[in-house]
Write a structure and sequence with these properties.
Order of helices and strands: HEEEEEEEEEEHHH
Number of helices: 4
Radius of gyration: 22 Å
CATH class of the largest domain: Mainly Beta
Shape: globular
Number of domains: 2
Largest sheet: 5 strands, antiparallel
Strand order of the largest sheet: 1-2-9-4-7
Strand content: 25-35%
CATH superfamily of the largest domain: Jelly Rolls
C-alpha cells in the first residue's frame, strides 16, 4: 500500500469521541473566522450547552432605550461551529436599534411582546423592506444588510432573535461614523452632513476629532 494512502486511512480510523458531534469552544483561545478550537473532552459539561439569560429582561436605561442579551459562543460554548446562536431584544417605549449590520450572519426575529417596526435595505437598489410586526410575527434580515428595529408601540417590546453564526458580529452605522476619532472634516465629506451636525453627533456618541 502506498505510504500516502496508508497515512490517510490511519487518520480516518483513529478512535473518535464526541468531536464528530460537536466542538465546544475553548474560550481561553482566540476566535478565528472558523471559530474557536475545541475544548478537551474531559472539560466539557452540560453547562456548555445551556444558557438561562434569555428569560430575563435587559436594561434599557440607555441612549437608545434598548438592550440585547446575547446567547453567542461566548455565552454558550456549545454552539461553536454549529452555525447558530440567539439573543433577546428588549425595547422600551421609544427604543431603537439603529441601522446596523451583522457581517457574519443572517438574522431571524420573532416578536414575543409588543409591536416592533423593522426593516432592511437591499445592497443592489437600496430598496427598503419595512413592516410593523406584532406579537407572534417574525421577520428575516439577510446577512450583512443594513437593518433596524424600532418600538413603535406604547409598551415595552420584546423579541427573540436567532442568527446563522455562533459569532454574528455587529457594526452600528451611527457609532462607526461618530463614536470614534475619524476627523470631522472627513465625516462631513462622506456623509454630506454639515460641521455642526457632525460635531453634535460626535459629542452625543463619544467621538473625537
Amino acid at each position: 500500500m502506498p505510504p500516502v494512502i496508508f497515512l490517510l486511512l490511519s487518520l480516518l480510523l483513529l478512535p473518535s469521541s464526541h468531536a464528530a458531534d460537536f466542538c465546544v469552544a475553548d474560550l481561553t483561545g482566540h476566535l478565528t473566522p472558523s471559530g474557536y478550537d475545541c475544548k478537551k473532552e474531559a472539560a466539557v459539561t452540560v453547562n456548555d450547552f445551556v444558557f438561562t439569560g434569555l428569560g430575563k429582561a435587559g436594561n434599557t436605561s440607555n441612549l437608545i432605550k434598548a438592550a440585547v442579551t446575547p446567547a453567542f459562543v461566548a455565552q454558550v460554548p456549545g454552539v461553536n461551529g454549529l452555525g447558530i446562536s440567539a439573543a433577546r431584544l428588549d425595547l422600551a417605549p421609544g427604543g431603537v436599534v439603529p441601522l446596523h449590520t451583522h457581517p457574519a450572519a443572517t438574522e431571524f426575529l420573532v416578536v414575543t411582546q409588543g409591536t416592533i417596526c423593522a426593516g432592511f435595505i437591499s445592497s443592489t437598489a437600496n430598496d427598503v423592506y419595512f413592516k410593523s410586526l406584532n406579537t407572534g410575527d417574525s421577520m428575516l434580515f439577510p446577512q450583512a444588510l443594513l437593518h433596524f428595529q424600532v418600538n413603535c408601540g406604547r409598551t415595552t417590546a420584546v423579541a427573540i432573535v436567532s442568527f446563522s453564526s455562533p459569532s454574528p458580529g455587529l457594526q452600528i452605522t451611527s457609532f462607526a461614523l461618530f463614536a470614534n476619532n475619524l476627523p470631522s472634516a472627513l465625516v462631513e465629506m462622506v456623509t454630506f452632513l454639515d460641521d455642526a451636525e457632525v460635531k453634535k453627533l460626535k459629542k452625543l456618541l463619544g467621538g473625537t476629532g
